Amino acid sequence: MISISEAQIVGWLSPILWPFLRVLAVFTAAPVFSSRAFPVRARIALAFLIAFAAQASMPEQPVIDINGPQALGAVVQQVGIGLAIGFAVRLIFGAFELAGQVVGFQMGLGFAAFFDPSTSAQSSAMGRFYNNMAVLLFIVLNGHLMVLMAVMHSFTAFPVDQNFLQALKELGMYKLGSDLFASAFWIALPVVAMLMFANLALGIVSRIAPQMNIYAIGFPVTLSVGLIGVAVTLPMLEQPFAALMQRMMDLFNR
Questions:
Q1: Radius of gyration over alpha carbons of the chain, in Å?
Q2: Sign of the alpha-carbon dihedral angle for 115, 120, 121, 124
Q3: Which of 19, 45, 134, 246 could be 51's S-S partner, Cβ–Cβ 3.0 to 4.6 Å?
C-alpha cells in the first residue's frame, strides 16, 4: 500500500504555493490584471499555471511547513511583495493619468469628469484617455510579460525566507512617488508648452484688439491647440512608458 506522509505533501506543495501567492497578489493590484472584466477564478487559475510553469527557471524554494509558525510570515511576505509589484505598475498608469489631467486642465476640460466604474472614482476625460493609451502600450510593448519577469526575478532578489521588513526597506517604494510626478509633468510638458504659447497669443490679441471678445474665441482655440498637441505627441508616449517599465523592472531585478 502506498503511503504519503505530511512531510512529502509539504515538500510538493511548498515550492508552488509561495510563487502562487506572490503572482496572485500581483494580479490583485496590477492594472489590466485586476480589471473587473477578468474573473477571479480565471486569475487564480492563471496564477497557479504561471507558478507551476515557472518552477524550472526559478531558484530552489525553501520548504516551509504550512502548519508551522514560519508559514504566516511567508504568506505575509509573498502577498506584500506581490502587492508592491502591482503597485509599482499602477504608479506607471497613474503617471499617465496625471499627465492627462494636467493637459485637460490646461485645455479647459477640467470640468469634463465622469464616474469610472473600474476604479469607483471620478476621473477627467483626458486623464481617462491617457490611461487608455497606457493600457494599449502595456499590451503592445509586452508589459504583461515584463510584469511576470519582474515576479520571477523578485524570487532571486527577495527570496521566500527573507525578512519582510528588510525586503520593503530594500525595495524603496517611496522613491517611486517623486518619479510619478516627474514623469507625469514630463509627459504633459509638450502639450502644456503649446497651450502656454496659445494663451500668450490670445493675450496679445486681446491687447491689440480690445473689441474682440476673447472669451468667445479663447476656449475653441485652446481646445483645438490642445487636441493638435495631443495628436502630435501620442507617437512619443512609447519612450516614457518603456522607461518607466524598465524602472519598475530594476526594482525587482537585482
A1: 24
A2: negative
A3: 19
β-bridge partners, 121:
116
pTM: 0.81
Region of 16 on the Ramachandran plot (φ > 0 left; ψ -120 to 50 alpha; else beta) = alpha
CA angle, 141 then 146 then 150, to 5°: 165
Q: Could you report the per-residue pLDDT of 37-96, keeping only the tens digit for each? A: 788 888 888 888 888 888 777 777 777 767 767 777 778 888 888 888 888 888 888 889
Report CA-CA distances (Å) from 166 to 162, 172, 254: 7, 10, 15
Instruction: List 158's β-bridge partners, or say none.
Output: none
> CB of 100 within 8 A of CB of 233?
no
The span from the CA of 85 to the CA of 188, in Å, is 25
Query: Cβ contacts of residue 124 below 8 Å, gap of 6+?
Result: 100, 101, 104, 105, 109, 110, 112, 113
Find the largest Cα–Cα distance for the chain. Answer: 100
Distance from the Cα of residue 126 to its chain's centroid: 18
CA–CA distance, 191 with 226 (Å, rounded to integer): 6
Phi, psi of 123 (to 5 degrees): -140, 145
**What is the Cα–Cα distance from 109 to 225, expressed in whole angstroms?**
13
Could you report the per-residue pLDDT of 95-137, keeping only the tens digit for each? 898 898 888 888 877 776 666 666 666 777 888 888 889 989 9
Give 82's DSSP letter.
Answer: H
